[in-house]
Amino acid sequence: MFIISLTYTKPMKEIDGLLSAHRKFLNEHYDNGMFLLSGRKVPRSGGIIIADAPNRADVEAVIQLDSFYTAGVAEYEIIEFVPSMAAEPFAIYQDDGHHK
Q1: Assigned domain for 93 exists
Q2: pLDDT by residue (tens digit) across 56-90?
Q3: Could you tell me the CATH number of the domain that includes residue 59?
């Protein structure tokens, strides 16, 4: 499981101009099952994506497809974690001790 933290590095005008393409990117990866949750940071300085992927290399490859990445308007931090506890709706992502 991965937390992808985006931090904007350019003015909001540039970010807003890329939002349509960014949302298309998000939708593609919701459709293929990699992205589970996403949204803006508060205050609006970037965003967070929760992703389920087999490995970090897959996440890094997907990020490179994002319009924010290709336009160079955001920095990305990838944090891998093993969910050892989960609320019932997310229990399918809980690690059973046999890290995938």
Answers
A1: no
A2: 999 999 999 999 999 999 999 999 999 888 888 78
A3: 3.30.70.1060
